[in-house]
Design goal:
With 105 residues, this protein is an alpha+beta fold. The chain is 14% helix and 25% strand. A hairpin with a 5-residue loop joins strand 1 and strand 2. Bound molecules: FE2/S2 (inorganic) cluster.
Length: 105
Amino acid sequence: MEFINIYIRDRSKTDHIIELPNDPAYSLMEMLRAAELPILGTCGGMALCASCHIYILSSHKLPNKNNAEEQLLDSLINSKENSRLACQLHIHESLDQLIIEIAEL
Ligand code: FES
């Protein structure tokens, strides 16, 4: 699979669809930024800033959270069961058709 599609609801509840190259060298955070969606990625993907906090709205089976992601999400007031850090998700064909919402900062 050469490209994958991701559906994104931004903070103003506007929906976007982006087509991404299926390249695991990039994180979802990097791809959302490249698509000029409102993701800051302030810490550069180190799981330190939470500016890439998203909610997963589809039922995709995603890789487990690592300790750093788990700890940062636990510290957020708006964290939910379906919260993830986009910087910790690498592009993979298993993310095709993923539906996400960008969390409030
Ligand atoms: S970019 Fe900072 S936590 Fe994801």
